[in-house]
Q: What sequence folds into this?
């Protein structure tokens, strides 16, 4: 069965809306990019991209559908994700109330482990059960009973390109001079907003079923 271009456009549009809308991953990319620079923001974004591609592969192979059929597995993932978001909320709240420090230099930024930032972005996305369900919805939307393997490849490849464009785009835009200056002026408010957002998302995962 040939690839349905119209169906692909629907899937890609849905992915852009889902990935580009404000959420914990995008907000963390923004905060790191403004505070620690473009390189650090891109490291977090790369982790988020990897997590998104991973869940896409899982959805394509049917593994995430198995998770959906066994609510216990999703509940565990939901609890872990909620706890991790609360941990990020605590860190953001602590940063919001900490005294102002001198702006980080390039040498200070070099000390930040890119591998650790990558793992932070990856872990955040892997522990978000909504990512799994979003990919299940995308695959259901884009693939029919007679879909060919080429359709799966095109969907995964296209969404991977969009993922890089969206998440790395956030890192690039929010590491520009005006955004960095905005962060320095409103650091407490920005970190406080992150703390509230992460805390709300974490509690929502812990207290409510998806």
A:
């Amino acid at each position: 069965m040939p690839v349905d271009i119209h169906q692909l456009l629907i899937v890609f549009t849905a992915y852009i809306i889902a990935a580009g809308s404000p959420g914990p991953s995008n907000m963390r990319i923004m905060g790191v990019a403004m505070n620690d620079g473009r390189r650090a923001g891109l490291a977090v974004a790369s982790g988020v991209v990897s997590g998104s591609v991973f869940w896409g592969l899982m959805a394509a192979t049917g593994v995430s559908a198995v998770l959906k059929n066994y609510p216990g597995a999703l509940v565990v993932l939901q609890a872990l994700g909620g706890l991790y978001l609360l941990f990020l909320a605590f860190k953001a709240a602590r940063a919001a109330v900490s005294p102002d420090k001198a702006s980080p230099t390039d040498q200070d930024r070099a000390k930040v482990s890119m591998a650790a930032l990558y793992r932070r972005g990856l872990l955040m996305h892997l522990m978000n059960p909504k990512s799994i369900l979003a990919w299940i919805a995308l695959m259901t939307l884009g693939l029919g009973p007679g879909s060919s393997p080429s359709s799966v490849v095109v969907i995964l490849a296209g969404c991977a390109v969009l993922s890089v464009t969206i998440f790395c785009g956030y890192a690039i835009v929010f590491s520009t001079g005006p955004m960095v200056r905005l962060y320095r002026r409103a650091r407490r408010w920005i970190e406080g907003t992150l703390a509230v957002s992460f805390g709300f998302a974490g509690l929502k995962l812990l207290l409510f079923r998806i």
In short: The two ends are 34 Å apart (CA to CA).
